[in-house]
Design a protein that fits this description.
- By secondary structure, this protein is an all-alpha fold.
- The longest helix has 27 residues.
C-alpha cells in the first residue's frame, strides 16, 4: 500500500510540474492537475490537502533534479574552472526550462512561505558547500594555490548571485528569457577572473 501511495504522489508532483512549467503556478488549478491524471480532486487532496503543499513537493523534486544534474556535470569537468562554469550553465538551463514556474518565485504568496524561504537558504548553503569542495580538491591536487576554500566559496557565491539580483532589481521583475544569456556571460567572466587569481602558475591541465 505504501508503494502505491508513493507512486501516486510522484505522479501528482510530475503532473503539477508539467502544468506549472507551461502555464505558471497562479494559472494552474488543482482540478486541472487531477484531470490530467484522470483522478478525482478528492484523491489529490488525500496526498496534497492544498496548493501550497503541492508547490512545496514540486520545489523538492526540482531541487533533487537540479543537484543530480549538477553533480553529473561537475564529475565530467577536467578542471576546477570547468566545474565552476558548469554551476552557472546548469542553473541557467534550469531557469530557462522552468521559466514559467521560476518567474512566480518572488511575487506570489505561495513562494513567500517559511518553507520556501528555508529551502532557498538550504540551496545557497548546498551550493557553497559544492564550491568549497571543488576549491579544496583543486588546492590538494596542485591546480590552485593554498587558500581558505570556505571563505573563497562564500565570496564567489555572493558575487555570482549579485549579477542575477542586480538584473532583477533593475527591471523590477523576473528577467525575460533573453536576459539569462547576459547574466550567464557575466557570471562566467567573474568565475574566470576568480580562477586566474587562484590558479597556481605552474599548473598545466
Amino acid at each position: 500500500m505504501k508503494e502505491e501511495s508513493h507512486v501516486k504522489q510522484e505522479q501528482l508532483v510530475e503532473a503539477a510540474l508539467r502544468r506549472f512549467s507551461h502555464f505558471g503556478v497562479a494559472k494552474t488549478t488543482l482540478t486541472e492537475v487531477a484531470d490530467d491524471l484522470s483522478i478525482s480532486k478528492q484523491t489529490l487532496f488525500y496526498y496534497f490537502p492544498d496548493k501550497q503543499s503541492l508547490v512545496n513537493a514540486v520545489i523538492d523534486k526540482l531541487s533533487e533534479e537540479y543537484y543530480d544534474e549538477l553533480e553529473h556535470e561537475i564529475s565530467q569537468a577536467e578542471s576546477v574552472e570547468d566545474a565552476l562554469l558548469q554551476i552557472t550553465e546548469v542553473k541557467s538551463h534550469f531557469l530557462e526550462k522552468y521559466y514559467m514556474l521560476m518567474s512566480s518565485v518572488d511575487h506570489r504568496e505561495l513562494f513567500n512561505t517559511d518553507y520556501i524561504k528555508t529551502r532557498k537558504k538550504t540551496h545557497i548553503t548546498a551550493e557553497i558547500r559544492i564550491i568549497t569542495r571543488l576549491l579544496q580538491q583543486g588546492s590538494e591536487k596542485g591546480e590552485l594555490r593554498a587558500l581558505d576554500a570556505s571563505k573563497t566559496a562564500i565570496l564567489l557565491s555572493e558575487t555570482l548571485y549579485a549579477f542575477s539580483r542586480c538584473l532583477k532589481d533593475h527591471q523590477g521583475v523576473f528577467p525575460e528569457k533573453a536576459a539569462f544569456t547576459k547574466v550567464l556571460q557575466s557570471q562566467q567572466e567573474a568565475i574566470k577572473l576568480f580562477y586566474q587569481g587562484l590558479k597556481k602558475e605552474t599548473w598545466k591541465a
